[in-house]
Amino acid sequence: MTGRNDKSLSTRSTEWTYGPDIHGDELPLFERRPEQTVLHAVLAELSGGRAAVVTLTGRPGHAQNALLGWAARLARESGSRVLRAQAAPAERELRYGVVAQLMTALYGPAQVGAPAREDGQVPHSLRALTGPDEHEQYEPQPLPGLQGLLRAARSTPTLLVVEDTQWLDAASQHWLETLVRRLTPDTPLVIMASGSALSAGGPDWLSALPAAPVPTKRLVVHGLSEGGVAAAVRLICGASGDPRFTRAARTATGGNPTALYEVLRRFAGHGHEPVAARLSELKAIAAAVVGDLVTHALSGLPAEVTTLLRALAVCGDLLPFSLVCAVAGLRPAVGRDLRAMLEAAGLITSVGMKALICPMVKARLLEDMPAGERAALHSRAAEQAYRASVNDEDLTHLLLRSPPLGSSWAVPVLRRSFAAALRAENHDNAVACLSRALREPLEPDRRARLSLELAAVEAVRSPEAGDRRLAELVRAGRDVPDGLRIRAVDLALARGNSDAVRRSAAEALHDARDGERDALIALFWLADGAKDDTEPMVPEVPALPDRPSGPAQAGVRAWQLAARGEDREMTRELAGAALAGGGPGAALFLPRLAACKALILTDDCTEAATELTALLAAARRDHLPAAVARVLTVRAELHLRTGMLDAAERDAEAAERALPPASSHPLIAPELMALRIATALEAGRHERARSLAAAPAPAGAADGVAWSSLLLARAQLAAVDERWTEALELSKECGRLLLRRGWSNPALLCWRPLAATAVRALGDRAEAARLSLSELTLARRWGTASALGLAELWAGPMTGTGGRPVVRARGATRVLRDSPARLAHAWGLVQLAAAELEEGDRRAAARTADELSGFVTAYPSSRIAVSARRFAERLEEPVSPSPSTLPREWTTLSKVEQRTATFAGRGHGNREIAELLSVSRRTVELRLSNTYRKLRITGREELCELVRTMEGRPTDAS
Fold first, then answer.
1. Percent of the chain with pLDDT over 70
2. How many angstroms separate the CA atoms of 230 and 237, rounded?
3. Close Cβ partners of 255 (under 8 Å, ≥ 6 residues apart)
């Protein structure tokens, strides 16, 4: 890091001076006042004719050379001769390379090396120092130029500057050692030398300098403090950096002046300001600069130094240093010597038995390493780490970067890390672990099982790759373990790729094992029901039997019957068999999920919820994110039907996390989109529902039957916004899509009541009645309480049949009360209370409204809660009596007394009145006392009769 361009900064006080580098650039020196004071004193001694030796050591880049440059300038200004040389890695094998630089500075480039003539010139060329070539016959002089230098110094005080002594060639090193020993106190010659702890030939020359007969100063140059960094930022960036920026700059460069100067120079060159908002840019620049400086610092070191650093970069934080040396292929003694040198240079730090390397240095070392060597190094590190019982996470880090090992422990470690990554929802890492495991030598069965696991997880981040992997497993035929092909088809269908499932299931039938055939047929027909497609399949697939015996076919057949609204009891029986059965196909997720959906339509929601929870646990246990998402979506729909809005929203969000929209197949994506719209709508978050409805569906989504769910959800939103034409078009399109598949069960999607409401709002009462009666007929055929109650609730107002509105509403609500459709029952209560109020039976309406209190409390912002509050406001408003029935004394009451009297006359107790009016019971009692006095009545009984008379109700209406 030290060199000809040692551009360094520092400040331990806010004062700074400039230190020129060898090219004459003026660079500021911060926090170097103590060193400058010593150097200045030594130069003063030189001017007085006294000798000295000064060494400056420190980590690479700590401004040693810049300080020598500053001292050289002062010496010249004082009239001293300055001879300056710099060792370099490229010249380490050049004999007397540094001496040649010094002699050139002393005599000039033409003649050096021979005894001085009378005029002081030397007759020989530079070869006299570096050695003869093949045409020259003379031998170089021992210690060439040494005596001449001493004679020259006696005539003119001389400062000899040698930079970067860690790169000294052996001959120059011997020459300098001899010079130090021959100095006398009265020789006007000062030697100033710099170096770092990094040395190509063992300990640095400065650390082993021989005892000198003249004063010797050893200075250690340290990195910058936070104050020094702050001053550098202020100078180079032109503004003070905020504290976070300053701390980050010091951390990123380690306070290294050379690194800091270059980082700040580049940072300011981009026009950035030294603020915390620019930390990412600062760190990126620092990583590049520090990497470049480290590369330069290591460029001339022996190969074993780089080898050790690379091994430390790979596993220094995992293994004791002795094992790192084994990974690097170094003998322990050599490793210990190199460790001491690297610690002194600040490139590594010892922590207990380990040696840690700077992260930025680590990154650069590995980047510059050939890929093959890097992989082999990771392999050796992984083997050592396993023998040292390193944890799975760190072992996996090494394995992911190594070629196949063929070791028996590798795959189990990767599988455990795969499971841990899934628990942390790190799907990218999970995929990487299993992909790496598949590169190891494996038995065919084990490879197939790992491929299935990998395909299941790829559904989240790279679904197309997962689909291809599953298709390959299906095409493998009998080369894969029994049952694995049908699991692959099941997982493909879980992501919604029904087209691929139909093809692969049909093609696999020709060589299917006995236990696979029925399951493949079941999965084919389940996939066939998800696509709005009437094209025949070649090869032709047998239809499902009416009463299948296998669990997979039973689950799919139950769903077929439920969707068509046929034979509720058979549907329930087949769904139960699918969930309870064993044998081939029993473990498949999608047929079991189909059975759960059928149970929801048969009103067996408690059983469905239990099975869904078990199915969800199994999908999570087996790490099947697509199956998890499908199960959560169905359970969210169940929660919505049963009025558990919070639970529905939680499951919908969890489903989206398990399988993000970008990974979900277009054919099933509308299902979750519709569910989220409907949930937001019922929860009263209309803007959220509008935002969700406006989101574009993925290309191809309209080709699946799930599109009907999204059409209905958008129609519901349009109805809430009273966009009746749009609501009608969307709901009828939903119906057409379902009817093309023969799915007519009203419990599936209630599109007819919505279409009837819209068409009635547009003035076509006859069409509204027709749609409502059709819904009622189908509901009666299916026979569940939820379907029948909801159909009756909507059919009454549309058809005008079934007696008075209050009678129709009361009958429908009574049916819904016995069903699991709690949301529909709540809406029935809203409609019943409104009908009771219309007929003037306020007490009955209030009782009905009270049944909604639990739902309103749980979901205060929901649509039902808003309707209930509006209804309560209507109940609180006194009925405007006709002038003929209004007693004259009534007008003498104040408004608050009239409201209090009206509630009391309707039969409300004082506590209830106080809660309705938000006043105390004592206030109610005082108001009623004033009312009795003004109306000239004796008490509550007369007040009730008076209010009933004013409201035009019979006296026995209560």
1. 87
2. 10
3. 222, 223, 224, 225, 228, 229
